[in-house]
């Protein structure tokens, strides 16, 4: 099974109305999120996809899960936070019934979002950024057992 994991974005709906809830797939408005959602998931034939949120309480979100605005960037968090975040993502993936040994995880997000996951995802594919808001979908980087394949 091919599973897409799209990193959240800094640009979100609801900053001016923090009590309002939005579907997770709609709240994120960043260019890389939108491109990953509209092009990356299709290009790599993902059977399903989820959102990686830097907020430790949200961590792995279903597309239709309703959430409120928040401002947390995983890249600015300390190592302990990132490790705890990764463990929560792992737990949710297992709860959802994914096979961490055999499923292939396509991670559309920067190093802060994929490095905490490499230790437990046997097969994953990550994508580089051309700039902070443009993802490079045509140059996948393959990892197996946490190690980059050549």
Account of the protein in words:
This protein is α/β, with parallel strands linked by helices and 150 residues long. It has helices at residues 24-27, 31-43, 79-95, 111-114, and strands spanning 2-7, 21-23, 48-52, 60-61, 66-68, 104-108, 123-131, 134-144, 147-148. The chain has a seven-stranded mixed beta sheet. Strands 2-5 form a two-stranded antiparallel sheet. The longest helix is centred in the middle third of the chain and has 17 residues, at 79-95. The radius of gyration is 14 Å and the shape is globular. The two termini are 23 Å apart. The relative contact order is 0.20.
Q: What is shown here, in short?
A:
This protein has 150 residues and is an alpha/beta fold. It contains 4 helices and 9 strands.
Biggest sheet, spatial arrangement of strands: 4-3-1-6-7-8-9
Radius of gyration: 14 Å
State the end-to-end CA separation: 23 Å
* Overall helicity: 25-40%
Low-pLDDT runs of 5+ residues are none
Order of helices and strands: EEHHEEEHEHEEE
Biggest beta sheet attributes = 7 strands, mixed
Shape: globular
Overall average pLDDT: 94
Structural class estimated from helices and strands? alpha/beta
The total beta strand count reads: 9
Helix segment tally: 4
Strand content: 25-35%
What does the secondary structure layout of this molecule look like, with pairings?
Elements: E1 2-7, E2 21-23, H1 24-27, H2 31-43, E3 48-52, E4 60-61, E5 66-68, H3 79-95, E6 104-108, H4 111-114, E7 123-131, E8 134-144, E9 147-148
Parallel strand pairs: 1-3, 1-6, 6-7
Antiparallel strand pairs: 2-5, 3-4, 7-8, 8-9
């Amino acid at each position: 099974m091919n599973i897409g994991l799209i990193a959240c974005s800094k640009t979100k709906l609801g900053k001016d109305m923090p009590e309002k809830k939005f579907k997770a797939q709609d709240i994120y408005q960043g260019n890389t999120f939108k491109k990953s959602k509209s092009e990356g998931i299709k290009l790599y034939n993902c059977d399903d996809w989820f959102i990686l949120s830097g907020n430790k309480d949200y961590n792995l979100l279903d597309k239709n899960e309703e959430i409120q605005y928040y401002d947390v960037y995983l890249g600015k968090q300390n190592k302990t936070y990132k490790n705890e975040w990764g463990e929560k993502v792992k737990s949710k993936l297992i709860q959802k019934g994914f096979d961490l040994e055999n499923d292939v995880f396509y991670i559309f997000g920067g190093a802060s979002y994929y490095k905490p996951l490499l230790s437990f995802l046997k097969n994953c594919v990550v994508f580089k950024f051309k700039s902070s808001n443009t993802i490079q979908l045509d140059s996948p980087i393959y990892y197996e057992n946490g190690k980059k394949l050549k």
